[in-house]
Amino acid sequence: MKRAAGAALVALATLLPTGCGSASPGLPGCGATERLGLIAQSVPSAGYLPCITALPVGWHSSGLLVESGRTQAELTSDRAAGHPVRVRLSAGCDPGPATALPPRSPGGRSYLLLSSIAPRYSGMLFDVFPGGCVTYRFDFARDRHIALMAELQSAVGLLARRQLRLELRRELGIELGP
Hints:
Helices cover 26% and strands 36% of the residues. The protein has four helices and nine strands, in the order ααββββββββαβα. It has helices at 2-14, 33-42, 145-155, 161-172; strands at residues 48-52, 59-67, 70-77, 85-90, 99-101, 109-116, 120-129, 132-141, 156-160. The chain has a seven-stranded antiparallel sheet with strand order 2-3-4-8-7-6-5, covered by helices on one side. A two-stranded antiparallel sheet has the order 1-9. The longest helix is centred in the first third of the chain and has 13 residues, at 2-14. Residues 1-24 have low confidence and may be disordered.
């Protein structure tokens, strides 16, 4: 039964429009239950899934790659040309010596690890939660970094897996495993 539901989810997702206003498919919006279902299948242990809450003006999402064990996408801003933010969902990560930030998900932890502050502001942002981790690799010009970091953090949200499970059941009659 679960295998059939998964096959139905894959079939549905291939018919969906790309959304997000970009020419190629990107990270789905937080209401795109079918596409988020595919991401959930890529990392079955993940308690949360990254999704677009709202892309600020000048931002685009592209390059969505969903594979067993991980999902990747890119976000680009017209004010950081040539330096996309790489977003990756995996089953785990090690933030190492990163600095703790206020958590972006209930029961989760968020961290910032800077590799450079001048002449460019670059590094990684981590959202760590039960069964998963989302990493954001960024590289911004120093003079624009504060606004770009704030926009990045507001653009990408974390949808609880249990919420997606309920929505898939209600909307499509599909059961999302684990």
